[in-house]
Amino acid sequence: SLLFICAEASQIGFNATIFAQFLRYNSEWRIFMETKVLNVSKAILISYILSAIALVVLAFIMYKSGLTKSQVEIGVKVIYFISAFIAGLVIALKEKRRRLFWGMAMGAVYMAIIIIISLIVNKGNVENIVEMLVNVAICVAGGGIGALILAIKK
What we know:
It is a single chain. This protein has 5 helices and no strands. The chain is mainly alpha-helical. α2 packs antiparallel against α3.
């Protein structure tokens, strides 16, 4: 397999040692990227599970107490922040370097998924671009703060 590939590569003019190093590097890179994708997936999944639970609780409170539209919007923003915060904490537990970057990236990914789903559901119509940008900022800040809190503690 690997020996055969190296032998074939050397017959056509490739240095077998360089080719073997290339294959080893690609394998290490693949494992590295799979780990990153798995860590990001776990953080996002946890944050969306938390969001779903929190939104059900908010809907129940809205049903029972008759919250106004502005109160519900504030509640949704708080849920966005907390969910991104948790995603930032989770990714910071997994990543030992560049935690602030990873936390902010989790907030951005969290909101990007929401925006994509919203665009699909609304058939590409964007109701309020300023509101969307505020939500992105809330999520990026939440993820970054979550990662920073863990980085400061360690």
